[in-house]
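Re: beginner question about structure tokens

> Can someone show what the tokenized structure looks like for a real chain? I only ever see the sequence side.

Sure, here's an example I had lying around. Input first:
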Amino acid sequence: MDFDVIIIGAGPGGYSTAIRLGQKGKKVMLVEKDKVGGECLNYGCIPSKALIELSHSVSHLRELPGVDMSLNLNLEEWQQWKWSMIQKLTGGVETLCKSYGVQVEKGEASIVDRNTVSVNGKNFTCQNMVIATGSVPVRFDSMKDVLFNREILDVKEIPQDLVIIGGGYIGVELGTAFAKLGSHVTIVEMMEGILPGVDRELARHVERRLRDLNVRVLASTKVSSVEKSDKYSVRIDGGETIIADSVLLTVGRRPNVKGFGLENLGLEMENGFIKTDLRKRTSVEGVYAVGDVSGQPMLAHKAFYDADVAADNIAGGNSEVEYRAMPFVIYSDPEISYTGELSGQFSSFPVGANGRSLGMNNRLGTYRLYYDEKGFVKGAAIVAPHSSELISEVSLAVESGLMAMDIGLTIHPHPTISEGLKEAAEGAYGLPLHFKPRN
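And the corresponding structure tokens:
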């Protein structure tokens, strides 16, 4: 065999599997048809958060009492900086792979059989194979020439009127960002409210912020078609036609399972995904799948975790996935983060009672800590500035079997957003310091 392992796809799942296997001394080839880093580093996670950070910085100063400012935003120059930053990241990943002996092959991969992959017309053989081809946006024939995350994150000027079809996390995140940068934003969502699947008591804080930003939300609404001439015409099912400069479609993603010969393996599939067991093995011996293509949730950090498990098992270990403390983050304003089991009894603490948050001119949000009858932490949901940086504390508590009192008795620095989590934990045993719960 030419390689111990051939990995198809160099996104978070693929490149991290390659690095882990390289660290274990395996001979690995990593195949990527586009750019190392995949969708996340090049067109999704990293550039979207860079845009969100830009918009937050702009709006924070504009809305801060006592600040009078004028702003000249050269988005083209900012895009050049963004791409230079991304290239440093992707270049670093590729260099790291090669430092562990991984052969990085650029080109189209095609699976010939269980032990053979063709790349740029040349066949390579392997003992094991890892499918890490990620996901692609859902598209509709009735919506021509619309933008997806790749295109909207690469614009050279801020659209005056932006319609976003889909009020899930991507739509809300980017809608918020462009509204802060000056766009008139309309979000169209077919469900009863934005962020379907998120507790309404959590989502209402984000809904209020969108109203403050003059974002128009059309819930329980469907788009029948989109047409483009000089501008876009977005036809609402049974209603108005909205004219816009740009239309962004964000109605979900689907696993990328076509165009690279996957059918030649005869793998068992499940709801469009490659079915895997707890060790990330597929139904064909020696073939593994990680990341988006192997099932929900479609998250980069889930792909990193999958990669650890798959690499360990390929190298002779015996690891299994356990997603019970998987953190979820929505980079809205304020951010929503949650992990673990969100059911049963919980204690809460209002963000409006947190001094650090008030100093940031934010009163919106809440901390919820869920626990069982003995006081052991089950999970948490946090709506607060930078809640994405807080949620791992709860994931660790769940994984380690800690009690709410363990968090409550841990010294948290003052003033910080993290103190609200400590106070929510104290609420579990009736002793929050800066908030008196209602009886």
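Each token stands for a local structural state, so reading them left to right follows the chain. The chain is about 30% helix and 25% strand.
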